[in-house]
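Work Package 4 report. The design task specified in the project plan requires that, given a folded chain encoded as structure tokens, an amino acid be chosen for each position. We show below one input record used in the internal validation round.
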């Protein structure tokens, strides 16, 4: 049988007058489809992100929000104002710029046109890459990247800027990403602070003009302002309802976040490396890759956005995310620099006796004979063991801890040096300091920053950790500290000082890459005079962070509250310290201190020998209780209920397991007045169709317990009614120190 010859469909339609109507209709539909055919969509479980990119045209941002149905994409052009996806200076736009470049001929205008688009997938979601060129400068290319995390409802974006020409060009601004947000009743929530008062929460409405959040100290980029923000789109922020966009710049160096609102009804979010400190000369053949900007969308309020960040952080942004961390004792507030072997052995035995799992010796164990580390004025850089303090060395402490059934850890600060050190005397050219200037010092009046732009210094810093680990192969934990910043920026190694801040971050990244390659199982805590490096720019090399040097439990409620906006409890080191507190002098009962620390990674920062037998028993029982809830707290979903910033006299939050079978409720009194009574707190996150057994933890004689302790109650009732906190006056503790930790288990 002869095979029929196929005829073009449009010729067949044209054969009859009747079908001409259908031809016109088909062409109109095709034209409509073509208008939207260049929309590229990245979907997650609950969100959609849409970019329009057509060849030889400037890529356009179209949409980011709740997940779209298939039929919704076609109406985007009518209902959402498209904007340049990565606006360039003078690039046919009056908008604020994400990119500013000085070409080899001095031209400072850029016109980005899409050359090609590639959309694909990876194991966690989808990818979108748009290669752009400037028609006037074909050797200059900018590749815009997006990557979705389907299950975590996260989007990452970053940019690659390339110079294939024969001459260098200068990058004056090179943001990681750009995100337009429709103007309305939009509120900005951000974090700022200082030493001992990190992560203070500020919420404010966005208005016309420019709002900038930035840091310029070079090393500790979250010391005064955080590189993470949240935008509440439905008015004043709410924890568990309302639409929220969260954004985090994943960079450990100087940054700038700008929110620019013009007269067209659009808020413009720009985030990237601070251009004030770093003009970057892009050499011929070089490609510059910006840090990643991660953002999320949630219709479950601030806590909903936090849950997305936490899931993403645990799975992709922590060294061993999803593995609950050990209960430890750190020696610092217990003995400070007064390290000696018998005292350290006793502290190891003490933490083991109450159920702890790790003992860490902090500062003071090292130095040289000329410069022993007996205070903060000398010894940094000379990492030899002080045998007078530890005659059997670090390995002796490893064996002591092993005999007690616990692990051993050590403190290091390898990026720093004291002028009073043999290292500085040998290598004064290894420190950061502006040329021709007198040394500008920090902590102890003698501390300076080593120049990690220099490969020889990078080798030295890696060797500090490597030699320490090899001297005692049983070390399982390192506290990596950073107690200074670039007080006098200048690198003896670099030719272009404009590159200093960027090259330092590249240098420390190379060191930490080597550390992780050599010691992949080592647990490392990130510390920087407290929480000054709490950033997703650093956390991929670390397991946890020291939240603050301030261990005052009352102030820690606020510090930990703000930190929880972006970072999971698994990574948040929260220690029980002495009373009166060493930073504030405040006296707080032991139970309250424990109940606050149990809401993160529980640890201790005191001298156990000063505790009474009754207090040791309280600690022992609390540790046992914490082990029952550790996985839920560290790896569960957070629901913040009543904020300490609401001035209601108390604060409350809870964690739920993903399957809703287990939850932990925390409640703390933050202030007390006569005739004041805390309101009921409806719970969140529970399954309304499950029943839960209620067990109050950390029970201490003399403290009022919740009336439902030991009862079984429906999740629906608890979501509607919560707990009646019987906060009666106690002459021993006062109302201001009342606290509760409650375990809920599905039956």
């Amino acid at each position: 049988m002869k095979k029929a010859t196929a005829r073009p469909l449009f010729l067949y339609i044209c054969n009859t007058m009747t079908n001409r109507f259908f031809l016109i209709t088909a062409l109109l539909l095709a034209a409509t489809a073509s208008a939207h055919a260049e929309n590229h969509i990245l979907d997650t479980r609950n969100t959609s992100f849409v970019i329009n990119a057509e060849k030889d045209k400037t890529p356009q941002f179209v949409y980011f929000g709740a997940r779209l149905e298939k039929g919704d994409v076609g109406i985007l052009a009518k209902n959402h104002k498209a904007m340049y996806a990565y606006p360039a200076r003078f690039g046919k736009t009056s908008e604020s710029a994400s990119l500013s470049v000085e070409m080899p001929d001095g031209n400072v205008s850029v016109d980005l046109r899409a050359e090609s688009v590639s959309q694909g997938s990876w194991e966690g979601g989808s990818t979108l890459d748009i290669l752009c060129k400037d028609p006037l400068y074909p050797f200059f290319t900018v590749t815009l990247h997006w990557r979705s995390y389907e299950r975590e409802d996260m989007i990452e974006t970053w940019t690659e800027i390339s110079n294939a020409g024969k001459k260098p060009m200068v990058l004056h601004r090179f943001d990681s990403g750009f995100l337009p947000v429709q103007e309305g009743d939009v509120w900005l929530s951000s974090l700022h602070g200082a030493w001992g008062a990190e992560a203070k929460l500020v919420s404010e409405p966005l208005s016309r003009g420019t709002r900038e959040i930035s840091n310029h100290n070079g090393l500790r980029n979250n010391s005064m302002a955080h590189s993470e923000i949240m935008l509440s789109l439905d008015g004043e922020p709410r924890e568990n309802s309302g639409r929220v966009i969260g954004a985090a710049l994943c960079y450990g160096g100087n940054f700038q976040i700008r929110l620019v609102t013009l007269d067209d009804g659009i808020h413009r979010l720009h985030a990237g490396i601070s251009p004030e400190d770093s003009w970057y000369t892009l050499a011929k053949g070089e490609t510059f890759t910006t840090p990643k900007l991660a953002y999320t969308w949630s219709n479950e309020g601030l806590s909903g956005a936090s849950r997305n960040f936490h899931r993403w952080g645990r799975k992709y942004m922590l060294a061993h995310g999803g593995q609950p961390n050990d209960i430890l004792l750190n020696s610092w507030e217990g003995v400070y620099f007064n390290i000696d072997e018998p005292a350290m052995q006793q502290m190891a035995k003490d933490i083991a006796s109450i159920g702890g799992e790790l003992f860490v010796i902090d500062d003071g164990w090292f130095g040289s004979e000329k410069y022993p580390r007996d205070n903060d004025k000398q010894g940094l850089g000379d990492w030899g063991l002080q045998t007078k303090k530890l005659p059997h060395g670090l390995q002796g402490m490893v064996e002591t801890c092993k005999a007690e059934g616990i692990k051993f850890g050590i403190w290091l600060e390898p990026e720093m040096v004291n002028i009073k050190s043999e290292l500085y005397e040998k290598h004064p050219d290894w420190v950061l300091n502006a040329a021709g200037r007198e040394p500008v010092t920090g902590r102890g009046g003698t501390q300076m920053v080593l120049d990690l732009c220099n490969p020889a210094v990078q080798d030295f810093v890696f060797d500090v950790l490597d030699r320490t680990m090899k001297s005692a192969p049983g070390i399982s934990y390192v506290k990596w500290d950073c107690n200074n910043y670039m007080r006098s920026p200048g690198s003896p190694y670099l030719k272009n000082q404009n590159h200093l801040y960027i090259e330092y971050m590249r240098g420390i990244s190379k060191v930490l890459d080597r550390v992780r390659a050599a010691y992949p199982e080592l647990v490392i805590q990130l510390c920087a005079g407290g929480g000054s490096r709490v950033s997703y720019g650093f956390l991929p090399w670390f397991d946890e962070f020291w939240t603050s040097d301030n261990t005052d439990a009352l102030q820690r409620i606020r510090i930990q509250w703000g930190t929880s906006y972006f970072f999971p409890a698994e990574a948040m080191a929260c220690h029980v310290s002495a009373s009166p507190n060493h930073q504030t002098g405040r006296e707080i009962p032991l139970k309250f201190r424990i109940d606050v620390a149990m809401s993160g990674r529980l640890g201790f920062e005191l001298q156990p020998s000063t505790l009474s037998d009754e207090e040791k028993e309280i600690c022992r029982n609390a540790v046992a209780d914490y082990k029952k809830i550790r996985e839920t707290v560290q790896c569960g979903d957070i629901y913040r209920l009543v904020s300490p910033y609401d001035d209601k006299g108390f604060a409350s939050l809870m964690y739920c397991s993903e399957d809703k079978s287990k939850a932990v409720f925390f409640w703390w009194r933050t202030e007390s007045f006569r005739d004041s009574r805390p309101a009921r707190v409806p719970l969140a996150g529970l399954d309304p169709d499950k029943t839960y057994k209620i067990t109050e933890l950390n029970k201490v004689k003399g403290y009022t317990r919740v009336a439902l302790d030991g009862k079984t109650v429906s999740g629906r009732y608890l979501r509607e009614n919560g707990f009646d906190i019987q906060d009666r006056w106690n002459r021993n503790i006062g109302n201001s120190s009342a606290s509760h930790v409650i375990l809920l288990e599905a039956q």
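The first strand starts at residue 39 and ends at 43. Validation will be extended to a larger panel in the next phase.
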